[in-house]
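Q: A reviewer asked whether we had any structural model of the full assembly, not just the individual parts. We don't, so I'm hoping you can provide one. Inputs are below.
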Amino acid sequence: QVQLVESGGGVVQPGGSLRLSCAASGFTFSSHGMHWVRQAPGNGLEWVAFVRYDGSTKFYADSVEGRFTVSRDNSKNTMYLQMSSLRAEDTALYYCAKDVGAMMPWGQGTLVTVSS
Amino acid sequence: EIVMTQSPATLSVSPGERATLSCRASQSVSSNLAWYQQKPGQAPRLLIYGASTRATGIPARFSGSGSGTEFTLTISSLQSEDFAVYYCQHYNNWPPEWTFGQGTKVEV
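A: Here is a predicted structure for the entire assembly that you could use as a starting point for your response.
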């Protein structure tokens, strides 16, 4: 079955960096665009980034543009989110999701906490 | 930037009743509209895409309608497992835009 598993979350100080991973299985990873979406504690969903199936095109939310970089390694069926210059407002549960026009399925998320 | 506005913020209903959730776009999004369900401690799950097409495995009691700027998610007869938060989302690959509404909590 289609599965997405995020990892790499943790506690980081403001201004620090972190790299998240999203491991995919059960589908042809190299044929699908992929998204990162985050959810701050008690809040709604915020789209963060998208990478095209071949990694050639990437889009970012204004709130993370210039600080976050999305990438993928199709040989490893894995997508990444490199986050730098982290701020308190980046604290959230980060989900990855497969692009089907809409988003399906979603992983269970990895928690990033930015705090001193 | 397209803004998605959901109403109401909270909907109180009883099991077996019909629930109607609304989503409004600040400009036309055609039928590029999805609905997601999120239960506490779980990831969102796609219910509806293309404004009215149920995703695989979604029960028939969930239906979506609308186009342009006004959309509705209807749950015909609420089951206990349907109490959750529901999000609408506009999606478009070009120009790239993926925008969520703020959510509607369906509670007893």
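A: Points you may want to mention in the reply: Chain B touches chain A at residues 32, 34, 36, 38, 42-46, 49-50, 55, 87, 89, 91, 93, 96, 98-103 (CB under 8 Å). The radius of gyration of chain B is 13 Å.
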